[in-house]
């Protein structure tokens, strides 16, 4: 695989990921229902993710993986049920009489700020320089002074191997470099939760390794809770504490990566893995 010369060497992947953290959950999905029109995509889905845990969601196309991330990012409305972050409701709560009520936008945004997402398409602002892309949310959402935001952005660009490209426009960068900027941009908000949705799927194969290298660094050197949707099964195996296999909006099977990838129990998981591995 071609290495980007600007990208510093990344450490070798850990042989086996550390034991999954437990304790107070960072994320709780409680009886989550998502419908698009009359079609129910998630049906009373329940799961927890611990603080610092990295969970990969796998499953066939249409099984609801992206919808789960988009609900957490509040890009989709929750049809029913509750999502909690550190015990606090994200978009809906029960009022004193037990009725489900939507939270006010201000309350939603307070928690939502703690969540970052990187998409398949990098979605950088084409009219801003690379460093301005990374500074934008810290300045406008967190209210950080510009110089502080710039220093933070520069540090992150250094971290993703693009420290000397800050003044360029994103369109001059390769897809892999743009995706590394998008990762820096998500990290600039110092999220407690990072959602990664097929972040290498739009890249030429030779650019995938550098982006995964950056994410490996993040996984190994921070305690950010991560939810990943990826087709990079070796990467998922290396960095995840847990893998959840979805089909039809339900969890078919979950377990540590070695078990799911090496010794899946459910026929549906075996069939899916046969098709993708
Ligand atoms: N905005 C929308 N309107 C209508 N249906 C939608 C919408 N977004 C998603 N869906 C449907 O919801 C289901 C779950 O989609 P989702 O993207 O979450 O699946 P996925 O597991 O991430 O699939 P993929 O691996 O192909 O990205 C699919 O049947 C999809 O067609």
Automatic annotation (TrEMBL):
Belongs to the ABC transporter superfamily. SUPFAM superfamilies: P-loop containing nucleoside triphosphate hydrolases. GO terms for molecular function: ABC-type amino acid transporter activity; ATP binding; ATP hydrolysis activity. SMART domains: AAA. InterPro entries: AAA+_ATPase, ABC_ATPase_HisP-typ, ABC_transporter-like_ATP-bd, ABC_transporter-like_CS, Ectoine_EhuA, MetN_ABC_transporter-like, P-loop_NTPase. Residues 10-20 have a biased composition (Pro residues). Its main location: membrane. It is found in: Cell membrane. Residues 1-24 are annotated as: Disordered. Keywords: Amino-acid transport, ATP-binding, Cell membrane, Membrane, Nucleotide-binding, Transport. It comes from Flexivirga oryzae. Gene3D superfamilies: P-loop containing nucleotide triphosphate hydrolases (3.40.50.300). It is a peripheral membrane protein. This is Polar amino acid transport system ATP-binding protein.
């Amino acid at each position: 695989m071609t290495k980007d010369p600007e990208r510093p060497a990344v450490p070798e992947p850990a042989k086996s990921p550390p034991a999954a953290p437990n304790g107070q959950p960072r994320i709780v999905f409680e009886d989550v229902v998502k419908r698009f029109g009359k079609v129910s995509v998630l049906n009373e889905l329940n799961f927890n993710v611990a603080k610092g845990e990295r969970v990969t969601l796998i499953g066939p196309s249409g099984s609801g993986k992206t919808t789960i991330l988009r609900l957490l990012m509040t890009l989709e409305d929750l049809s029913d049920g509750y999502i909690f972050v550190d015990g606090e409701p994200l978009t809906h709560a029960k009022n004193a009489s037990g009725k489900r009520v939507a939270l006010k936008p201000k309350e939603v945004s307070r928690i939502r700020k703690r969540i970052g997402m990187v998409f398949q398409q990098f979605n950088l602002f084409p009219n801003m320089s690379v460093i301005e892309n990374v500074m934008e949310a810290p300045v406008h959402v967190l209210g950080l002074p510009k110089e502080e935001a710039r220093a933070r952005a520069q540090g992150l660009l250094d971290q993703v191997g693009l420290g000397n490209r800050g003044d360029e426009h994103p369109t001059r960068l390769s897809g892999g470099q743009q995706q590394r900027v998008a990762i820096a941009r998500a990290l600039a908000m110092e999220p407690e939760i990072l959602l990664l949705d097929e972040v290498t799927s739009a890249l030429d194969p030779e650019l995938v390794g550098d982006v995964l290298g950056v994410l490996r660094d993040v996984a190994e050197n921070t305690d950010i809770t991560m939810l990943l949707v990826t087709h990079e099964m070796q990467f998922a195996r290396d960095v995840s504490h847990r893998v959840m296999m979805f089909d039809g909006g339900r969890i078919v099977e979950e377990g540590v990566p070695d078990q799911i990838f090496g010794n899946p129990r459910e026929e549906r998981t075996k069939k899916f893995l046969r098709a993708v591995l």
